[in-house]
Write a structure and sequence with these properties.
With about 170 residues, the protein is mainly alpha-helical. Helix content is about 60%, strand content about 5%. The chain has a 4-stranded antiparallel sheet, with no helix packed on it. The longest helix has about 35 residues, at about 1-35. The relative contact order is 0.10.
Length: about 170
């Protein structure tokens, strides 16, 4: 009986010793592989996955294009969208032009005729028609009107409510 217990314990110790040996061998292999290649433990850049990962992390639908609507403001002004945003902010004596430009870039990539969130968010600042049913498409897609609306939201301290994900990104950029 004692002999059987000793054999059992010896077997367990042999298994533990073999496991430790294999772990050590694996670690030695990883160290040698790292020295030879430099790839072990290195984060590999996968830019083709960045957009997908961002969408999965945010759990938002990707922004989709509308049928292109003529943006008369862009044609008449001869200014880029960021220049228009800055000009409107200056007219309103709103000093944080960079915040407006960054939000518009983050939300719509400066595309005033864009829809996102399954078609519910509209324009440069992605004004949501569920949260704001009183805002018609004509206003949401208007560069001037949406910039004025965004300025009002920011002045009211609502930028983190309106653009939660973008504000997190903007805070990381700064």
């Amino acid at each position: 009986m004692l002999k059987d217990k000793l054999q059992h314990i010896t077997g367990i110790l042999a298994i533990c010793a073999m496991t430790c040996f294999l772990i050590g061998l694996g670690m030695a292999y990883m160290i040698i592989l790292d020295q030879l290649t430099g790839y072990v433990g290195k984060v590999i850049d996968t830019p083709y996955l960045d957009k997908y990962i961002e969408i999965v992390d945010s759990k938002l639908e990707p922004v989709t294009e509308l049928t292109i609507v003529e943006d008369l403001e862009a044609e008449v002004s001869g200014m880029t969208i960021p220049e228009q945003i800055r000009a409107i902010a200056q007219e309103q004596d709103f000093i944080d032009e960079d915040l407006l430009v960054n939000i518009a870039y983050c939300e719509s990539s400066f595309r005033p005729s864009i829809r996102g969130d399954n078609g519910h968010s509209r324009g440069l600042f992605q004004i949501n028609d569920i949260a704001y049913p009183e805002i018609p498409d004509e206003q949401a897609f208007s560069v001037r009107w949406s910039v004025l609306w965004a300025i009002d939201r920011i002045k009211a301290g609502q930028q983190y409510k309106e653009w939660t994900n973008c504000m997190k990104k903007i805070d990381d950029w700064i």
